[in-house]
Task: structure prediction
Amino acid sequence: MGRDEPETVGATADMGAGSYPVRFEPMAVEVAVSRGTRVYDVAMALGLPLAQSCRGEGICGRCGIRVKRGAEHLSPEQAPERMRKRSNRVDADLRLACLSTVHGPVVVTTDYW
Ligand code: FES
Result:
Protein backbone atom coordinates (compact mmCIF):
# COMPACT_ATOMS: atom_id res chain seq x y z
CA MET A 1 0.00 0.00 0.00
CA GLY A 2 1.54 3.29 -1.12
CA ARG A 3 1.44 6.63 0.63
CA ASP A 4 -1.11 7.95 -1.84
CA GLU A 5 -3.48 5.13 -0.97
CA PRO A 6 -4.73 5.49 2.61
CA GLU A 7 -5.01 2.40 4.76
CA THR A 8 -8.33 1.83 6.46
CA VAL A 9 -9.01 1.65 10.17
CA GLY A 10 -12.47 1.03 11.53
CA ALA A 11 -15.51 -0.29 9.76
CA THR A 12 -15.43 1.81 6.61
CA ALA A 13 -13.44 0.41 3.69
CA ASP A 14 -13.41 3.49 1.48
CA MET A 15 -13.35 7.27 1.66
CA GLY A 16 -17.09 7.55 1.11
CA ALA A 17 -19.53 9.43 3.30
CA GLY A 18 -18.62 9.05 6.95
CA SER A 19 -14.98 8.17 6.27
CA TYR A 20 -12.18 10.68 6.76
CA PRO A 21 -8.41 10.80 6.44
CA VAL A 22 -6.25 10.99 9.55
CA ARG A 23 -2.63 11.87 8.83
CA PHE A 24 0.18 11.37 11.31
CA GLU A 25 3.21 13.61 10.92
CA PRO A 26 6.13 13.51 10.51
CA MET A 27 5.71 9.86 9.47
CA ALA A 28 3.37 10.89 6.65
CA VAL A 29 1.12 7.96 7.49
CA GLU A 30 -2.47 8.55 6.42
CA VAL A 31 -5.45 6.29 6.93
CA ALA A 32 -9.16 6.51 6.26
CA VAL A 33 -11.27 6.06 9.38
CA SER A 34 -14.95 5.87 10.15
CA ARG A 35 -16.63 8.89 11.71
CA GLY A 36 -16.35 8.70 15.47
CA THR A 37 -13.13 6.65 15.53
CA ARG A 38 -10.81 7.64 18.36
CA VAL A 39 -7.44 9.03 17.30
CA TYR A 40 -5.94 6.75 19.96
CA ASP A 41 -7.38 3.65 18.25
CA VAL A 42 -6.02 4.74 14.90
CA ALA A 43 -2.52 5.25 16.30
CA MET A 44 -2.62 1.90 18.12
CA ALA A 45 -3.89 0.05 15.03
CA LEU A 46 -0.97 1.47 13.07
CA GLY A 47 1.54 0.60 15.77
CA LEU A 48 2.58 4.22 16.22
CA PRO A 49 4.50 5.00 19.42
CA LEU A 50 1.83 7.06 21.14
CA ALA A 51 2.59 7.53 24.83
CA GLN A 52 0.05 6.06 27.22
CA SER A 53 -0.10 4.11 30.45
CA CYS A 54 -3.86 3.59 30.88
CA ARG A 55 -4.59 1.79 27.59
CA GLY A 56 -6.84 4.56 26.36
CA GLU A 57 -9.04 4.81 29.44
CA GLY A 58 -8.67 8.58 29.70
CA ILE A 59 -6.79 8.42 32.98
CA CYS A 60 -3.05 8.90 32.46
CA GLY A 61 -3.08 12.07 30.35
CA ARG A 62 -0.07 10.90 28.36
CA CYS A 63 -1.65 10.52 24.92
CA GLY A 64 -1.49 14.22 24.08
CA ILE A 65 -1.48 15.02 20.39
CA ARG A 66 -0.92 18.30 18.63
CA VAL A 67 -3.48 18.97 15.91
CA LYS A 68 -1.75 20.55 12.92
CA ARG A 69 -4.86 20.82 10.75
CA GLY A 70 -8.54 20.06 11.19
CA ALA A 71 -8.94 20.75 14.91
CA GLU A 72 -12.55 21.64 14.15
CA HIS A 73 -13.01 18.09 12.86
CA LEU A 74 -12.28 16.46 16.20
CA SER A 75 -14.95 15.99 18.82
CA PRO A 76 -15.14 19.10 21.02
CA GLU A 77 -13.10 18.99 24.19
CA GLN A 78 -15.36 18.08 27.09
CA ALA A 79 -15.01 18.58 30.83
CA PRO A 80 -13.42 15.16 31.54
CA GLU A 81 -10.65 15.83 29.02
CA ARG A 82 -10.00 19.33 30.41
CA MET A 83 -9.93 17.95 33.94
CA ARG A 84 -7.55 15.12 32.98
CA LYS A 85 -5.24 17.53 31.18
CA ARG A 86 -5.21 19.90 34.14
CA SER A 87 -4.58 17.17 36.72
CA ASN A 88 -1.73 15.73 34.63
CA ARG A 89 -0.25 19.13 33.71
CA VAL A 90 -0.81 18.54 30.00
CA ASP A 91 -0.33 21.52 27.68
CA ALA A 92 -3.76 23.07 27.14
CA ASP A 93 -3.11 23.15 23.37
CA LEU A 94 -2.88 19.36 23.18
CA ARG A 95 -5.81 17.00 22.77
CA LEU A 96 -5.94 13.61 24.43
CA ALA A 97 -6.03 11.06 21.62
CA CYS A 98 -8.17 8.65 23.61
CA LEU A 99 -10.83 11.28 24.22
CA SER A 100 -10.82 12.72 20.68
CA THR A 101 -12.91 11.28 17.89
CA VAL A 102 -12.64 12.00 14.19
CA HIS A 103 -15.44 13.85 12.36
CA GLY A 104 -13.51 15.13 9.37
CA PRO A 105 -9.98 15.29 7.92
CA VAL A 106 -7.25 15.88 10.51
CA VAL A 107 -3.45 16.04 10.63
CA VAL A 108 -1.85 15.31 13.99
CA THR A 109 1.56 14.87 15.57
CA THR A 110 3.11 14.76 19.02
CA ASP A 111 5.89 16.84 20.56
CA TYR A 112 8.15 13.76 20.73
CA TRP A 113 7.83 12.31 17.22
S1 FES B 1 -4.17 6.93 26.94
FE1 FES B 1 -4.26 7.52 29.03
S2 FES B 1 -5.37 9.39 28.96
FE2 FES B 1 -5.29 8.78 26.90
